């Protein structure tokens, strides 16, 4: 490596999603739309679970953790795009870049582990329904969620320590819309072999394959139990309880495979896939849980009726009372 081409990193320049000036307004509006949907959907889930006592169950406790992860991931990765559009400043300091890549790596690893914890919750609910509330008690759920946050942080710390020690880069330009670890490796003139090996062992095996394997095993037991249910209505009901989670799991792992399943030495950042993984997936998660989850829809209707009754008068009209009774009866079924 020519020493003249090596620079000490003080800042980086993010190229963004598109280099075409005519597309910047469209990109800004698209990202703004995605973020508003993501924020609105995940905040709706958080508020519904907080306000509606029917949703105070282990399943929705973990769903709240997933919504927090989605919101945080969107903020961390997308905040620079509208900032660049409004100010024209596409630089990011070395410290801010390292903080961004650390937080994003933590959140993305935690999301897979949290989905694994949710698969265990579905496993207990379907395979051991009589012991569900005993096994998935408040203390255990809190400990399991805390473990997910802690273990994901511990997994990314070694790689982050090595990455932060890199100060020599062949270019200040990052061909991405946020600081990710692989684009930084591409422009580093330091020896990245140890970091690449660590990414493969911890990132691919521990952070990705291990959660996938545990989730897969959980669903093997779940599907086996569902098949043994004699009535078709019972099988449908059992499968319905985990269909939203299974859809989200499939969406997450398929997007990760498309984005990162390339040889480490020849990795080239695919910004469209990265945008899908960091923006579209967090937007789709609350939509999937809302559209495919009857409890969420009924909770939304109950809270909407409550606020309508509160601001329209101190009593409930007969037609409103009939609707409430109907909704509650549907929920009991």
Provide tags for this entry:
single chain; 333 residues; mainly alpha; 3-stranded mixed β-sheet; two-stranded antiparallel sheet; 4% strand; globular; disordered C terminus
What does this structure look like?
With 333 residues, the protein is mainly alpha-helical. Helices cover 75% and strands 4% of the residues. Strands 3-2-5 form a three-stranded mixed β-sheet. Helix 1 packs parallel to helix 10, helix 1 crosses helix 11 and helix 9 runs antiparallel to helix 10. The longest helix is centred in the middle third of the chain and has 36 residues. It is globular, with a radius of gyration of 23 Å. The C terminus is likely disordered.
Secondary-structure blueprint:
Layout: E1 7-8, E2 11-14, H1 24-51, H2 58-78, H3 80-87, E3 91-93, H4 94-127, H5 132-135, H6 138-165, E4 168-169, E5 173-174, H7 181-187, H8 193-228, H9 232-260, H10 271-291, H11 294-312, H12 318-332
Parallel strand pairs: 2-5
Antiparallel strand pairs: 1-4, 2-3
């Amino acid at each position: 490596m020519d020493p003249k081409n090596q620079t000490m990193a003080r800042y980086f320049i993010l190229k963004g999603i598109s280099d075409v000036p005519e597309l910047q307004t469209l990109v800004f509006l698209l990202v703004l739309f995605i973020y508003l949907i993501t924020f609105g959907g995940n905040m709706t889930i958080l508020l519904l679970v907080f306000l509606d006592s029917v949703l105070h169950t282990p399943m929705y406790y973990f769903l709240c953790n997933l919504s927090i992860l989605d919101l945080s991931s969107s903020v961390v990765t997308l905040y620079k795009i509208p900032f660049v559009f409004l100010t024209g400043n596409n630089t990011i300091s070395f410290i801010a870049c390292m903080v961004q890549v650390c937080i994003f790596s933590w959140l993305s690893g935690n999301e897979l582990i949290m989905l694994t914890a949710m698969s265990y919750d579905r496993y207990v609910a379907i395979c051991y329904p009589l012991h569900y509330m005993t096994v998935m008690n408040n203390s255990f759920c809190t400990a399991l969620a805390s473990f997910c946050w802690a273990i994901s942080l511990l997994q990314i710390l070694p790689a982050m320590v090595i990455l932060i020690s890199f100060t020599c880069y062949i270019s200040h330009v990052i061909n991405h819309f946020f600081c990710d670890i692989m684009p930084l490796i591409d422009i580093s003139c330091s020896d990245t072999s140890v970091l690449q090996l660590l990414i493969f062992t911890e990132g691919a095996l521990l952070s990705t394959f291990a959660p996938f394997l545990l989730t897969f095993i959980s669903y093997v037991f779940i599907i086996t139990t569902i098949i043994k249910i004699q009535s078709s209505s019972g099988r449908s009901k059992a499968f319905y309880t985990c269909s939203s989670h299974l859809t989200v799991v499939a969406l997450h792992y398929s997007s990760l495979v498309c984005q990162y399943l390339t040889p480490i030495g020849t990795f080239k950042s695919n910004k469209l896939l990265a945008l899908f993984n960091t923006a579209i997936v967090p937007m789709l998660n609350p939509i999937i849980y809302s559209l495919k989850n009857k409890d969420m829809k009924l909770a939304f209707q109950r809270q909407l009726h409550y606020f309508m009754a509160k601001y329209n008068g101190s009593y409930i009209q007969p037609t409103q009372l009939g609707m409430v009774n109907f909704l509650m009866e549907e929920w009991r079924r």
